[in-house]
Amino acid sequence: MPKSSSRPFSNSSTGSISRLGLWVGVGTTVALALLTWLAPPVLVRLDNTALDFQFKLRGERSPGDEIILVLVDEKSLKEEGRWPWSRRKQAQLVDAIHSGDASVIGLDIIYAEPEESPLVEDVQALVKDLRDRRLLPLAAAEAMDQRLAEAQIDRQFAQSLASSGNVVLATPFFVPELQAMEPDPGYQQSTSNLLERNEFILVKQSQSGEELQPYRATAVLLPLESIARASKGLGHVYRLPDHDGVTRREVLALRYQDRYYPSFALEVARLYLGIPREQVSLSPGEGVRFGTRLLPTDPKSRAVINYAGRDLRFPWISATDVLGQNVPSGLFRGKVVLVGTAALGTYDQLSTPFSANFAGVEKNATVIENILHGNFLATGLWAGPVEVGLVLLMGFVLSITLPRVRALHGALTVTALGLAYLGFSQYVFSAEGLSLPLVMPILTIGLVFMGTTVLSYAVKERQAREIHAMFSSYVSPRIVQELMKHPSRAMLSGERKELTMLFADLVGFTSFSEKRQAEQVVGQLNEYLGAMTEVIFKWNGTLDKFVGDEIVVFWGAPLDQPDHVKLAVQCAVEMRARLAELQERWKVEGKPVLDNGIGLNTGMALVGNIGAEGKKMDYTMIGDQVNLAARFQGLTRTLGHPILLTEHTAVRLEPVLTGQPSGGFPRDLRRLVLQKVQVVTVKGREEPVAAYTVVWESASEAASSPPLARAV
Predict the structure, then answer these.
(1) Tens digit of pLDDT for each residue in 297-313?
(2) pLDDT value at position 81?
(3) Fewest CB atoms within 10 A around its CB: which of 1, 109, 520, 535?
(4) What is the structure's pLDDT at 707?
């Protein structure tokens, strides 16, 4: 037989589903990659939430031991008085810390206003005038000068800073959210040279405009000149919380009047490490070159702070204990000592991923620790392209894979991929300080899966409806469900297969129908056909068609049925048994008793959807072997047996019957016996064919039914 060139309908549909799934996945991936590149605010907020989740999943960690906090806490206020303290007392605090051999002292306190009254300067000028005019005795003038010098508290404080020689002061800069915003009155458009000694010496200028420039300050609140000049360095304390109010990033550099200035924490860390200022340079968009190391930053010169945990994770001591010299020996030796406020209502309160009540001085301590240990969460210009690359990689791989696998396997695949990526991301976050993007890669996995799965379900649902509509009137519900689950098993566009065909026809139906009213004929015929159809579907036959009173059935398609011969013979025997029951009922009801003949054949046939496309299509079979089965059905009248099988069917049935109980047959049919009738030559065929019949023992009234009469 020539091989059919027709293609399976289901494979074509499966290919269409795969192609559509691929395009849906690719389209979803490209859209998500574009969204990732644009980074809208909602995506940034989701990324921040994911970052907080990673912090909490990691838990708290131990910070380094290089930093000690001296805190003005509730105990300090209770014993020393309300804040702010006199700068004389603050000078004593600085002297006490310096005497403990601190390496660097960072004062996270603002000194922008003088403490003493202007009256002191007026009195000092008056005393000088009286002394010059000899109106005041020399001894009295010297005594008054001494008392006035003691009253100059800011000068004394500056002297303490100068004596220490290692103090860094916090300096607020004003950075407007909008260009039209005006700074607070205390800020100045300063041109003072106080800032010059604190600026970055080397700056690698960016060619990308404002996108790769640090935030631009428009004003600054400088410390008093005498205090500023006595310090070792100044550092800005500007911070920019995210939209949810959480401070996650440190601004390592600010731009002011076309110059660039380090943060307070960066300046403290530089002095602690002994790095000369000329070895600190800024590369906008890349990071801060810090001696031989590079501190990576984002395009706005920000670094993601690697918080250690909730507040007070660093070693700390109360400021009143330092003033009272109640400090363990060597506590400050070689350390960074940060002085700040921690009493309720006295400090710059901020929110972190761990706490909503975090002191600004401890945030600065965390940043210093990150700089000293190089454990900022890694970021930079590469972060955006890496995230886009991950979205494209995951999206394209899943777009190719998911449409080719079943939904359950796809769900397991994306679940495994998502969990693996989350696990790997959390590992590198905790172990390496690398914050990989979470939201868009995971969203890509989910949306590509949803898109391809929903599409697959929609197409398969439509395909299932088509299969149901096409086969529900042909085959049993069980086979329909099997076809809907596995559409690839249905060959609708035509194929050559070995089938077992059954033709059943009523005897003398033409004369019966001519002598009776149409309603009676149709009613009894429908009763007969309905009973036969139930039997056919019970034995999983494919009902080809009704041609008047003739029934055409086959096995072996659309599903492969290796036992199609056995199923067909079982069906034929039970059709005769069911007909016997109908005959008994018709006798009781006084209706004509109808009889039938059944012919079976097994052979190759062309089976598929045949007809006028778009008009009328039937799933049917055609071929010489089909004609042979029809001819054998006609021979039941002449040979006198209600069931006739061709030798092709008998040869395949004999091994099934030999020495085997007829399991699966009707309960009252214990055993089938195959009998040869004779060799016949049928119309349209030159070669003779042997005819067989089956009889059954202890069966039913069908077993003793009389031979069929010759057709009228």
Answers:
(1) 888 899 999 999 998 99
(2) 92
(3) 1
(4) 38
Q: Is 254 within 8 Å of 175 (Cβ atoms)?
A: yes
Vertex 313 angle, CA 308 and 318, to 5°: 150
- Which tokens go with 88? 């004389």
Q: Order of strands, edge to edge, in the sheet holding 253-256?
A: 216-217, 253-256, 259-262
Q: Distance from CA of residue 431 to its chain's centroid?
A: 23
C-alpha to C-alpha distance for 376 and 296, rounded to whole angstroms: 8
Secondary structure of residue 679 in the 3-state scheme: strand
Give the whole-angstrom CA distance, residue 446 versus residue 244. Answer: 26
Mention every residue, 6+ apart, whose C-beta is less than 8 A from residue 705.
Answer: 576, 580, 595, 642
Domains defined for the chain, CATH in brackets: 18-38+382-466 (no CATH), 67-116+152-373 (no CATH), 475-704 (3.30.70.1230)
Quick check: helix, strand or coil at residue 235? strand
Pairing of the two strands 596-612 and 495-506 = antiparallel
Do residues 559 and 595 touch, judged by C-beta distance below 8 A?
A: no
Indicate the residue type of 155. R
Residues of the chain with pLDDT under 50: 1-12, 489, 659, 661-670, 698-712
Coil vs helix vs strand at 256 = strand
- The upper half-sphere exposure of residue 4, i.e. CA atoms within 13 Å in the direction of its Cβ, equals 15
Express each pLDDT in 243-295 by its tens digit.
899 999 999 999 998 889 999 999 999 999 999 998 999 987 788 999 899 89
Question: Is the backbone of residue 486 left (phi > 0), alpha (psi -120 to 50) or beta?
Answer: beta
Contacts of 5 (CB under 8 A, 6+ apart): none
Cα 7 to the center of its chain, rounded Å: 37
Give the start-end residues of each E strand in 512-573. 542-547, 550-555
C-alpha triplet 648, 651, 654: angle, nearest 5°: 145
Q: What is the pLDDT of residue 213?
A: 81
Beta-carbon count within 10 A of 334 CB: 12
In this prediction, residue 582 carries a pLDDT of 94
531, amino acid identity? A
| Cβ 2 vs Cβ 476: under 8 Å | no
Within 10 A of 37 (CB to CB), how many other CB atoms are there? 13
Closest CA to 582 of 512, 536, 514, 527: 527
Contacts by 637-641, CB closer than 8 A, 24 or more apart: 637/507, 637/597, 637/708, 637/709, 637/710, 637/711, 638/710, 639/677, 639/678, 639/680, 639/691, 640/707, 640/708, 641/677, 641/693, 641/707, 641/708
Q: Are 316 and 68 in contact (CB under 8 A)?
A: yes
Q: Are 437 and 387 in contact, with CB atoms under 8 Å apart?
A: yes
Q: Is 332 within 8 Å of 101 (Cβ atoms)?
A: yes
Q: Are strands 495-506 and 550-555 parallel, antiparallel or unpaired?
A: antiparallel
